Every structure is written in structure tokens, then in C-alpha cells.
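#structure-requests
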Amino acid sequence: MVNVTIYKKQKTNTTYVEGFHFEGHAGYAESGHDIVCAGVSALVLNLINSIEALTEDKFTCEVKEELGDVDFHIVNEPSEKAALLLDSLVLGITGIRDTYTKYITVNFREV
């Protein structure tokens, strides 16, 4: 199962996604045929690449590929572009969760 934690932070009157942690493999199908893992991986990698290429936001990212583990955090409050990209990731991940409830969990944590 893929376990997702989305880290939300509140500053003044704004709440934003500060980062996320993904761990595990879905187990929907054999490696190389697992559409749940493929969808999650595509969303996460696209988010990281997009923030790096399209914004000036600084972030930390630690990946342990064999464990299916990704830990990502924006260093400062995200720019408008980065915030939109992070919200888009959350939208995509919750959509996958809503369809494949036995293979992915999504939790939100205030930090």
C-alpha cells in the first residue's frame, strides 16, 4: 500500500501545502504492471521536476527508490506557482485514492 502524508502549514490567514511524504508500493499488480504505482510516481516526479524547472522555490527532497519512499519539503512559503503545483498533486493523489482505496491512503498533517 502507498501511504501518503501531505504536510499543511498555516501562516496568518493562509493554509498551504508545505511538503509530503510517500512510502510503500501499491501492490495492485506485479512490478512494471502496477498502474497505481505508475500513476503516483508520475504525479510525484512531475511535481518535483515542475517546481525545479518552473519556479525559483527551494526545496529538499530525499528519495529511497527501492522502498518507494519520497520525502519533499518546500524550504520557505511556496510561491504562487509552486502552491498551485502542490495543490494539483494533492488533487491527483486524492483522485487515485478515491478510485483505488485498497492500495493508497492519504492523510493530512498540520505542521
